[in-house]
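Fold sample X.
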Amino acid sequence: MIPQIHKQGSNTFGLLNYLYGKGTHEEHIDPHLVASFDGMAPDPGRDPGATKRDLQQLLDQPLQLLDPDQRPEKHVWHLSVRNAVEDRILSDEEWGQIARRMVAATGIDPGDGAGCRWAAVRHADDHIHIIATLVREDGHRPDHHRSGKRAQAEARLLEVEYGLQQVNPGDGTAAKRPTSAERHKAKRQGRKRTAREELRETVRRAVAGVQSEEEFFDRLTAAGVLIEKRVAPSGDLLGYKVALTDDLNKDGKPVFYPGSKLAPDLSLPRIRERWSSDAAGHDPATERSAGSTRVTPSTARRQATSASWQAVLILDQGDDGQVSALISAYGEVLDALAKTSAAHTRRELRDAAWAFERASRSHIRAERGHDRALRQAARDLVRGGPALGRGEAGATTAMLIDMAIFFVLAAAHWHGKKEHAQQAAAARQAAEHLRAAYQAAAPMYLGPMHQRGRNLSQPLQRKQTAYLRRAVPELAEQVLAEPGWYALAATLADVERAGHDPAALLAEAAKRRELDTAESISDVLVWRLRRIADLPADASAVPPNQPKRTTAAMPRGGTRTAPPPRRPGTGTDSSREHQR
């Protein structure tokens, strides 16, 4: 249940005209009264003998108790109370009870017999509007200080009592919700999201890793949105607003939204903070984007995975400003990943980025500069371009998603400690979408590894089991019972062929962060090992019997010896592996 206090006004009749009207887009259905201060107010909606002017005069009568110069100019109080889409439809009687609870909780009509005059109007299934005159029957002003917070607290109680969706308390940093008119318009146009929401996602994606105003507006133009810039007389750019080409008002003109009205962090000054901190820490010698070599999708995903891991460590031990910057920047990483993902993961990744957007803002101000690595990762993902979901690019997508799950769960834990209820819930929701994306991305790569692990000879399987028990004795039995163990066994064999100590590397991979939140410890360790050992994420890219060519593998004299040719039908990979 979402209560919203609107700006105080001075025109009671004007607001009643809106409440009892058809709405800006015919969205008001059967406007009628469900409650009032005395239970006997005229209802212009269902009583043919009542008019809106009658109701206005009744509500404003206490103003006559005051001298004209003592009457408040802004005397109209307006509260809307809306239920979630998933909630059951309440009856008029239930909405009336809710209205009486709200005016009592907010101090408008506390029940002492001298409260303000008010009326509650319902013109849709899911919400009511309460209009009140801010002068009590005794001529005094009501005590409605902090009425917004009072309404929120009462809403939490009502949700439990009426069995409604329980909303986490907000902190004022959420993006502006679409209005009823915007939602009805989207429904008529067959849109899944309102124009405001589509534009917010488009602008967020344009911001991901961007490093200048020119690049930002170029991305918006490429995305096909209309842009209007607000320029000072000096020529300085002050702000911007955007519109969809097919979202028009009644005059046939595009409906523009300023960046700050899409989300608090999408105003031009807040966006500038991101790239200004990038410029402050810019080092041409180490700037990857400054090079001429094109970043491949797989390279970008490996780099993003490494940057994510370093960021997770800071989430556990960094100060609040650092953590806030990293969480904000990770929203850019998820946006960039969703933008460049293959079709079979795109929807879930997009939904993950959409959910995490709420987790990326809080009242803790981000200390920009600590987020450079993540913003560079987002930039490289965009520069690397779309991944087709096959080969190394597809496998490194699974690797990155696996790490992203750990990051967003760590973010949820941090928000939980700070009592940021909405942000913590949003991060957990993002994790669920990431898990679904992982299930779409990973099996085609883990499957071949799993099969290779099953085909290992018994001596080799016992060898990999021994490595596991030596490296992580406390996790060994759980890992061995998982379906993913065979993929991990194959990866340990690859690690050993690459010249590493499997037990040592596995111990390092396991202690890099807790594994309690992992649905499959084996999967997590597979991706960590392949990244740490610099093995191909797509294990089928290199034949399993092909050793990694290292200096240690060279014969004396410096010349490499070609491996013997493989003859068809001479045994499985595992038998040849055991013979080597």
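Fold sample Y, listed below.
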Amino acid sequence: MTTFQPALNAVPAGIGAPKAVATPGKATPAISAKTWIAVIGATLGAFMAVLNIQIVNASLADIQGAIGAGIDDGGWISTSYLVAEIVVIPLSGWLAQVFSIRIYLLTNAVLFLLLSMACAFAQDLPQMIVLRAIQGFTGGVLIPMAFTLIITLLPKAKQPVGLALFALSATFAPAIGPTIGGYLTENWGWQFIFYVNLVPGAIMIGMLWFSLQSKPMKLSLLRAGDWPGIITMAIGLSALQTVLEEGNKDDWFGSPFIVKLSVIAAIALTAFLWIELTAKKPLLNLRLLFRRNFGFGILANFLLGVALYGSVFILPVYLSRIQGYNSEQIGMVLAWTGLPQLLLIPLVPRLMKRFDPRLVIGIGFALFAVSNFMNIYMTNDYAADQLFWPNVVRAVGQALVFAPLSAVATAGIEAENAGSASALFNMMRNLGGAIGIAALQTLLTKREQYHSNVLMQSVSVFEQATRTRIEQLTQYFTNHGVIDRVDAVHRAYVALGHIVQKQAFILAFSDTFYLLGAALIVALMAALLLKKPDHLESGGAH
């Protein structure tokens, strides 16, 4: 089948140098310096785009207060970025073919930096939402284009190195984002979370400007574009992402707004699937999903997104709500999910040469699952010290998973299908994150209600322990200035209710970690069904 999506065989393999092809018994030709500069520059852009999501989320409360946004409406600061990002990811390969890799990537990199700086000067919520949405369109381009350059410019034997670099954006950036965001917000002000992009962004633009070869634009391809697919995809993904981001806050299907968006998403995405599977020149080649390694790799990657973004979401909520940590303290706790990755990820390509990459993937998923199961027995005293080892184990697991999973899943993908593969692989991880966060928000709410009901059945005034506790609390309030005993007793009951609710929340948080661990076990099973690619039969060294 001839596909219209990004024909990246038009991308120069090696940026002006012939593409190195690894063949058994033949040494891999040297890769030009420009190729590595292009790959490193592109992955730096992807790192910044992913970091931007988490760094802003860590400082959302401060931003809301500064621009006068309410808690509910302020959520659109993140939602607008994520909606734009998930829509543009599948479009990036095709648009890169239309405008050329160099022009498309450099233009979006420059706009990303300008919009990041503009966000720091936003005066109100509408301004911030518009700026963040446009920034999402530009930042969303940087993620799949980096992945595409790695799997098209580097020979198979060197792709693990490139994918290890990309893993810094896929797994390290989400983990370290709250640390950087919390520190900057507490010490310099929320505006600096947007300024932090400027220096690395300037380096990225310089590297891409130097390394990417000029190619003529092919604007005529706009006329032949899969416009029905583009329109249905954009509508469907926008509606779905909004439902996932806003659903829990709006009581899901109790809200007419959520119901309408859900119907729109279902109709549009169903139409998109039908169009892509029947069109002669589809935007995305969905038939790649029927390939064994890519299909199971996508499933494992989707569940990785659930656990990766889900854990980055749930830990700050727990530390803030239960332990009363500020954003900087939360960042210091989460640093241990990021810093070990910085040391381990560069070693992963060597592990892939020495061991079956599927074994590395399996161990990674197993460790990531174990790190979540280590948190299913939380107590009121479960804080930074108790989270240290689970976070370190999680860091090791995440570091081991991404590069080998990407290499195995995309093995055998032809150059003309590279854009589709990159778009699907990155979109599904992000979509997994959105679905994971939505599921965790709902689970947290429902399980807190369940545990509250169970605990309240044990808190009876007919129980001696309950009466003793109420008397202790009454005495406490009396000793701290409450003269009226009736008022002191009332406060004691209220305080007891808060204690029960807090304990119910702790149990609910434990349940969320159990769900994340279970998702990773399913991902592990999907990884076990992967077939070892031919080019990795000797560990990737040819």
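Sample Y note: The chain is about 75% helix and 0% strand.
Also: Confidence is low (pLDDT under 50) at residues 1-25, 537-542.
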